[in-house]
Give the backbone structure.
Amino acid sequence: MNILTFDIEEWFHILDSEHTHADKQWNNFESRIEENLLGLLEFLDRTGQAATFFCLGWIARKYPGVIREIDRMGHEIAAHSDMHQLVYSQSVDGFRTDLERSIKSLEDITGKKVTAYRAPGFSITEQTPWAFDVLMECGIEIDCSVFTSARAHGGFARFPLRSPCRIERNGSSIKEFPLSHYKIGLLRVVFSGGGYFRIMPYPLIRHMMKRSPYVMVYLHCRDFDYGQGKIDGLPLHRRFKSYVGIRGALAKLRRLISEFRFVDLKTADSLIDWDSAGTVSL
């Protein structure tokens, strides 16, 4: 099962940067989301490919036409937080407020219930299992925030499953679609999204895809935007991961879609026998 998703945020929504931390700084940057998204939607339309779009509430309020166009083209809309802040940097109440505002902003535009969520930076970690309680309280049925390897924003390396499962908390459960990785010995190699996708040669991605029964692909408009600006102050490794491989990313995605079958999240959910899926108690 291969799932195609996009995180809808601006090119300058870079985490852990003092220059892009809050909305008062975002106003200093050129907006590119409308132009970039239009090109992406046209590409998906030409290829007949459906996808799930995890959208910021901030984008919904500032550019409601972006959300309307995604919905008009028949794609699923999910929440990606409101203000693109790391989960573990927030209090429980702050996280709840941010989540509720993002859901309301998206539902007010489409008139459709939002039932899926992905945290910015996959920032639900072993230290923040309470986030799943809040998601369930707010009507979220599917989460896609677990990164099953160590990473800059924490990750959840000890999460025991690499496939869709149920997370149980305090007598309730939520469906989890974790980010996939490929194991080489003890090494966990992430290949299916963002900088990982742009950096890796396509033959290596194809090799890992063919040997992976479940792959969650996550991409951003900025992954294909060669004309975007550069964020000041990023360390060398962050600059490399943020900007390498942009020029060839769309061609790489085109090859991937032509060689593998992808579905959106809601279709994937309908295809899974959840009674037989694994369960993780946190």
Summary: The first helix runs from residue 23 to 26.
